[in-house]
Amino acid sequence: MSEPDKHEPDPAIPPLDTIDDSQRVPPPRRPAPPRPRPIKTTEDIPPGAIAAFGIVALVALLLTLKWGIPKGIDWYHHQDWAWFTQWTATVADPVHDYLSAHTVGLPLTATSAFVIWQGVGIVSLVLSWITGAVGARLTWTAHGACSVFMVWDAAPAAGRPVAAALAALAWTIGSLFALRGLSLRPLIHLHNHNHPAR
């Protein structure tokens, strides 16, 4: 037979009392570390260092003006830019042809429509890049989609896929700037509203 358990039961644990929100005391705030004193050029940097930096900057500027810019201009004149002009013509010519075919009977000429198409593209690209405004980005997106559609519709049948792909590629390169900082992740804001009870 087993002996009865002589172990005494634990004392009763009293229930926890909750503290009303209005009586809670927030933990004391720790003081922020001191901020470093900003550098003042005339006081903190020795005059000799300022003079040396100025001389080095002046020499670098003179060397750039004397040799750098002429070499850059020489390089530019010896490059074959035919690929760029061909790419531009592959995209722009079908757009102009599309506008010529679809502005017949309108008070707007095909040339005016083409200039408007170019202007809207440039302005929406610049505004999207600089301001990041939603309207400018939507305009840039619509401009790119319409451009690819016009190239697809007006390009010769044999080169239609390549022309549309080059138009889409040109638009995506511009989108690197126009849609900079755009994220498809949802932005979640959590707000903790701890108001004292009244």
Structure description:
α3 crosses α5. This protein starts with 40 loop residues before the first helix and ends in a 20-residue tail after the last helix. The mean pLDDT is 84. The longest helix has 31 residues. It is built from six helices and no strands. It is mostly helical and 198 residues long. 60% of the residues lie in helices and 0% in strands.
Map the helices and strands.
Elements: H1 41-44, H2 47-77, H3 82-102, H4 110-131, H5 134-154, H6 160-178
Helix pairs in contact: 3-4, 3-5, 4-5, 4-6, 5-6
Tell me the series of helices and strands, N- to C-terminal.
Answer: HHHHHH
Count of alpha and pi helical runs: 6
How much β-strand is present in the residues? under 5%
Sum up the overall morphology in one term.
flat
What's the gist of this structure?
The protein is built from six helices and no strands.
Question: Top keywords for this entry?
Answer:
198 residues; flat; mainly alpha
